[in-house]
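Structure ticket #2291
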Amino acid sequence: MPKITVNADCGDAPEKALLRDLNIAFAKADVEGILAYFTNDIRWQIMGGIDLHGKVAARAALEAMKDVVTRELVIDSIITQGREGAISGVITTEQGGSVAFCDVCQFVSAGGNLIESMKSYAIEINDGGLAHAENRHLSVV
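Resolution: structure written out below.
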């Protein structure tokens, strides 16, 4: 079970809680838990060249990511406004790597409980230096 630290205030904002819980599901490699937050026709762009459309494609990508085990998830910030939201933080894996991430999401509606599109950004943190990581989820979940 990964160590989870949430520095962001989720207060009573349901979209903030959704983004927090989604990233906790990523840290736990909970494929079904992650998919529960996506619409059936989710569009998930993993910046660096991966563009997934639909839950079937998302499921296949998530299943391929399950080998990397998360040791720690730190959520630094969650921002939501209307139909949009963003979450950022750092994931550290059991394999020893760390990735700073940001997911920018669009909900079905303001106050909605499903994500219809998500863009994932990541930067691998290497011993004091930074290197671009093509995909936070593929490399850390």
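Closing remark: The two ends are 12 Å apart (CA to CA).
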